[in-house]
Amino acid sequence: MPIKRNEPSSSDKETKPKAAERIRHTARELFYREGIRAIGVEEIVSRAGVTKPSLYRSYASKDDLAAEYLRDYEGAFWKVFEAGKAEHPDDARAQLMSYFEGLAQRATQGGYRGCGLTNAVVEYPGDDHPARKVAQTHKRKLRARLIAMCEAMGARSPDVLADGLLLLLEGTYASGQLFGKQGPARSLVTVAEQLIDASLR
pTM of the full predicted structure? Predict the structure, then answer.
């Protein structure tokens, strides 16, 4: 029975997700390493080994692809951030310090590029860009999560402690790119511990 013109063939159905996945993976690598603005659609499709029409079948624009990259990045972030729950189910401080310890290691390695979500906010100062919207929503969630963790720790002023810890995080994301192995990121855990100790009831 002949295939109708308006129906994709079985081979199209098989290759489409593969092409979309290659585009997504390539965009994530390039956007994180080089920045979103620095990378054009031509480079993404060339590196992914796909055609430009195949990119636009999955994403209406580069802006939509950038937003999708950040949603993927956010999903990966929360997996790492919440990983300490399994080891320390009833200890918010230990959960948080588990993330800080891992971040201190990553931020002192060569090639570290900070937080992709923070970088996107810096790249797009206007509030209307889809990538910035994803990043802003994420940072608000992170701040709320930190406040909840600080409440669980018994902080006198959970919101103040959470803001201090968030400033430490954001400072680590930025300074890790500047200083590397001998930079301020190596002191992240010590400073965070001191800040928490000083803030407990």
Answer: 0.87
